[in-house]
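Chapter review. Work through the record for Tyrosine recombinase XerC before attempting the end-of-chapter questions.
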Amino acid sequence: MDVTIYIEKFGLYLREEKELSPHTVESYIRDTKQFFEYCLAEKVNHLERITKTYIISYLLFLQKKGRATSTISRNLASLRGLFQFLLSRNYITVDPTLNLETPKIERKIPQTLTLQEVEILLSAPNTNTKKGLRDQAILEVLYATGLRVSELIDLNVQDVDLENRIIYCNHENNERIIPIGNIAIDALEKYIIESRNKIINDAENTDLFVNMQGHKITRQGLWKIIKYYTQKANINKPITPHMIRHSFALHLIENGADVRSVQEMLGHSDISSTQVYIKASTFKISEIYKRAHPRA
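Structure tokens for Tyrosine recombinase XerC:
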């Protein structure tokens, strides 16, 4: 089954007719390629042989591999889009995703940092240097806002309102206003005045976070920063930007924030994505009870 031509046509359809963002198109194409690789491994070598059963089996296969619920849901959305496209172009006669519900998959409790680990990580940068000031501001903003990597690196200077202590996030039509605390505001202010404004070479550059050459910081650059300070802080966890986002949400819930407010700050379209932090908080309390109560 040579599916290359179908994938190419699907990608063209997503870009030109649906006008989806390059990032979204890339995700859809990657998901469909991986699905077809699975089909070939299962000896399914023709489009018409792909049934609802195979798609459910694939979703369960992703679950067994430890894929996140959000990733599995996105894969199903990608396959729905693909088969609706193939049906509309008469490449197939039946859409195998029709009326297909996502298998009920237990949401994993996200791995997070403790408050002590957060303190150690955020105090690791050397703020006597321009790089250290930038890195501290990045870490403080990640933990203070729960922003995704792509959202953080796309921030402009004008997106930060230091006086009113808020950050405006408008990434891929996910627009929201996020309050930010005094410590993060102070770190941002010091970075902008004492570091960023001395690093940039182009006065018209509006990127908030820049590398030491004065250009917009990249995803890879941000990951390297996190990895460096994880090692420096001697924290025995594989810390990722998303783990900091999880920690932001969990610590808010544990300190009494309502789930709707946390959902809005995280930019979740589905509240079930946010409710996992309630489960994580309850799980933590249960573990503390088991360790502490003499008759637990």
